[in-house]
Each structure stands twice: as C-alpha cells, then as structure tokens.
Amino acid sequence: MLTPMVAGGVVFPGLFLLSKNTLQRLPQLRWEEADAVIVSARLVSSVQAVMASTAGYIVSTSCKHIIDDQHWLSSAYTQFAVPYFIYDIYAMFLCHWHKHQVKGHGGDEGRPRAPGSIWAVARGYLHKEFLMVLHHAVMVLVCFPLSVVWRQGKGDFFLGCLLMAEVSTPFVCLGKILIQYKQQHTLLHKVNGALMLLSFLCCRVLLFPYLYWAYGRHAGLPLLAVPLAIPAHVNLGAALLLAPQLYWFFLICRGACRLFRPRGSRPPSPCQTQD
C-alpha cells in the first residue's frame, strides 16, 4: 500500500514544482510567480483528472460482473491519488494567497506584512473554498478507508465509474485559467464552457442514477426499486456525494447563463419570472 502512496506524494508536488519553475525560468515565458503558481496548480489538477478518468474507464469496462470482478488499478490508483488531495489543499491555498497579494491586500515588497495577516488570508481561503476543502478531507479521511477496507475487494465497477467523474475537471480548470486572464468572451471560453457543462452533467450528476440503474439491471430490479433494496447507509453515502455535485452544477449553470446571455440584455425581473 505504501508504494503507490509514496509515488503519488512525489509525482503531484513534483509536477507542480516542475511546471512552476519552467513557466518562471523559460526565456520565452518568464512568468510572474503568481501566474506560474495558479496555472501550475490547474495543470496538475488536469493531469490527475486525466489519469483518474483513464484508470476508471479501464476498471469499469474490465469488470463484467459489477459486484465480484476486480481490477488491480482500482486499489492501486485509489492509494496513488490520496496524496493528491492533501497536496491540492495546499496548492489551492497558494493560489488564494497569490490572488490576495495581487489584489494589494498583502504587504508591499520589502515591507513586512502586518502580524496575523497570513491567518486572515487562511480564514478567507477556508471561507471561500470551504466546500472544496471539506470534499478533499472527506476523500482522504472517509472515502479512502472505505474503499480499501470496507469494500473487501468488491464493487470495483462502481469505484471505476466514480473515478470517471474527473472527466469534467480539465474543462473546469481551463475555464478558471481563461477567466483569470480575462478571456471570458472568446470562442474558446464558450466552447469550453459548453463542454464543461455537458461533462459535469453526465459524469458527476447523472452518474449516480446510472449507478443505481446498473445495480438494478444486475439484480433484476426497476430503477425506482433500487433505493429500497440496498442498505440505508449506501443511499446516505450516495446522497452526501451527490449533494456538492448538484451545488457545483448549479453554479456552472448560472455561469453558463451569464456567458451565453446576449450582451446588453438584462436578466428577467422577479415579476416576469413568476408569470
């Protein structure tokens, strides 16, 4: 178990440092540290997403029996990905820190920052990214032990499908980078936004009804009968995993409405929306 975790602990922070140093030192680029940190963090998240979704596809398509079939990648990649979630909490904090500095809230270069300012930034980070930090913590402290110990080698198909939820992450990361560089009105941003909306809907929201349907087909049950046929704690776990996906999907839909709304048009008034 330790080998994949050590490998993940080396690969993800190492890729981040390599990307950041490359962006800062290449003569053709010479990016500022803030830009290099933010883009490098998005790059590592995208790489992890591609690796996770690829592993998930291999596992889910290899398991013909959705309960008993096993694939070595299911446990190996789960262990490999644990350090990523720990690293990413710190990487997100670095991004928030540099954005805070760019906005002029930090001390000037050469001047010491006010005492306790780092704690103020940390509080702002936790306030802004609380749901994402909580999600990462749950993945490490709850989902990882459950997938390694509680499953006892069963349900690799379902774990593979859950790994494929990461398909939408590269589009999310690219969208954030384009917004960072004020490219909201480009064709690339609009195409990426549509792909992000579609991939998030299919791979994160509709994934859970699909998993229920897959189990129902295996057990010979109609979809609506599946929640009553499985243990309550499984339904509770699925609901807890689905809830933040629905919230994030709502935010994506709201952003898409702003993106594709014709310029100069105003959102409907409350009276109009009630008709």
From TrEMBL:
Entry GO CC: membrane
Subcellular location: Membrane
TLC domain residues: 34-261
Keywords in alphabetical order: Membrane, Transmembrane, Transmembrane helix
UniProt KW Transmembrane keyword: yes
InterPro entries (UniProt xref): TLC-dom, TLCD
Keyword Ribosomal protein set for record: no
Coiled coil: none
Recorded topology in the membrane: Multi-pass membrane protein
Major subcellular location class: membrane
Protein name as annotated: TLC domain-containing protein
Organism: Sus scrofa (Pig)
